[in-house]
Write a structure and sequence with these properties.
The complex is a heterodimer of chains A (281) and B (162). Chain A is of the alpha+beta class and 281 residues long. Chain A is built from four helices and twelve strands. Chain B contains seven helices and no strands. Chain B starts with a helix and ends with a helix. Classes of the chains: A alpha+beta (281), B mainly alpha (162).
């Protein structure tokens, strides 16, 4: 049982083997994702354990709230409800009218059918990625590529799922791009994450495009991931450099990406059969 | 009396899971950059303390665990773990005989190397930006290593792991 000379494989050979295995695993990331679900599910109890104290503190602070705070909160909520229901009165009417007009045009609009509230688990993630872990997973019907919003606007999409929780990629992440349109004039653009929670960029916008500071950008529904019409960001800065064809446009996300606690998972209704191949992954 | 091999393996992997817990545990955001890479440090401890129970394959699995709890591309941290623990495994007898302070400095260097490697690997996959204070995590290792070393040595002696 001498451990110095009688090793079965020399360290260098082992190193080579594991480097090769790692490279294969990294390069076949897409093919590994079904297996990753099982592996992540095995480890997700750790995330629930890490999050448990925070969740407990939340419920404790809920149960010891004073009468005065509750009354104040109630007042605010009542006022908000009144405002919202006032908007809804006209919204219902407009929605019906819109559906009728769309039917006349022969292109019925799809409305999101199912929604689910998820809580953000306070666990740490990869320092290079802007991700969140939420407490809903395969068991609740969550799927990879599912759109996620908060009460203000689009937050991101589900990146990977496990049995009980899942990981959301924020729109501000480096690897994320989202198809947008300007609410004012329906010009279509692409919003690109830059790794900064407070700022995104618009890509390939020619100088002649009609974009103004303060313009509201909503999802365009292209690409099949995000349903049409959800608010995403506002234009916050336009910069034109002399020699370049495209202008450099900064946009500020409307969702509070740095302090989200509750999120809404959306199930956009299935697109028409003929559009299925487009949806792909 | 020596512990049963299964007990040893169980205690080693339990300590890795505890490290994974510390790795994702919520802490105030301003302290977040100061969190040492616990999984890496525990893996390095076992590679120098019992290289016959914790070899490069084990380091690779520890890296995969980090990939899974962090949501990193699978295999990326595993690759970095294997590369840096090779250095430690080759010199395990030398490192084992260093004083705790000396070991802490070596581990800080190793952790810094690991962070540089994982940044390079991330960079090769997509154009990521290095977060501010990225290397603070390695610098804190100087303080974290002595405590970790003492705790794990205590555990190793208590269960007579061999």
């Amino acid at each position: 049982m001498n451990t110095i000379f009688s090793r079965r494989f020399p360290t260098r050979l082992k190193l080579l083997i594991f480097v090769l295995i790692s490279l294969i695993v990294i390069l076949s990331t897409d093919r590994m994702s079904p297996y990753r679900v099982y592996l992540t599910s095995l480890l997700s109890p750790l995330q629930f354990m890490a999050d448990a104290p925070v969740e407990m503190l939340d419920s404790v602070s809920d149960s010891v709230k004073s009468r005065a705070t509750l009354i104040a909160e109630n007042k605010i909520l009542r006022r908000q409800e009144l405002e919202v229901s006032d908007k809804l009165l006209t919204y219902e009417h407009l929605k019906l009218e819109n559906i009728r007009l769309r039917t006349l045009l022969g292109s019925p609009v799809e409305y999101t059918q199912r929604k689910l509230i998820a809580r953000v688990q306070s666990v740490d993630s990869d320092p290079f990625r802007l991700q969140l872990v939420i407490n809903k997973g395969l068991d609740h019907g969550v799927y990879a590529g599912q759109p996620v919003v908060d009460e203000f606007g689009v937050v991101g999409q589900v990146l990977e799922v496990s049995q009980l929780n899942s990981r959301v990629l924020l729109i501000a992440d480096n690897s994320h791009a989202i198809p947008l349109q300007i609410q004012r004039n329906d010009v279509r653009l692409i919003g690109l994450g830059k790794g900064d929670l407070h700022q995104l960029e618009l890509q390939y916008v020619t100088k002649s495009t009609d974009v103004k500071i303060g313009d509201m950008l909503v999802t365009s529904g292209l690409g099949g991931v995000f349903p049409e019409g959800y608010p995403v960001a506002r234009v916050s800065g336009i910069e034109n450099r002399g020699s370049e064809i495209y202008s450099n446009i900064k946009i500020t996300p409307i969702a509070k990406l740095d302090r989200v606690r509750y999120l809404l998972l959306l199930w956009p209704s299935q697109p028409l059969e003929t559009e299925q191949p487009l949806k792909g992954e | 009396m020596r512990a049963h091999p299964i007990t040893s393996v169980f205690v080693i992997w339990l300590s890795i899971l505890c490290a994974a817990f510390l790795q994702i545990m919520p802490i105030p955001p301003f302290l977040d950059p100061f969190r040492p890479n616990w999984i890496l440090l525990v893996a390095l401890y076992w590679s120098i303390a019992m290289p016959h129970r914790f070899n490069l394959g084990s380091a690779w699995i520890a890296g995969v665990i980090l990939d899974l709890v962090w949501g990193t591309t699978l295999g990326l941290n595993a690759l970095a773990f294997v590369l840096v623990s090779t250095i430690v495994v080759i010199h395990f007898q030398k490192v084992r005989s260093y004083s705790i302070g000396h070991q802490a400095l070596v581990m800080t260097g190793i952790s810094g190397l690991y962070q540089s490697l994982s940044y390079l690997f991330e960079l090769s996959l997509s154009d990521v930006i290095m977060p501010s204070g990225y290397y603070l995590s390695s610098i804190v290792t100087v303080l974290a290593w002595p405590w970790l070393f003492l705790v794990l040595r205590k555990a190793r002696r208590h269960w007579r792991i061999n």
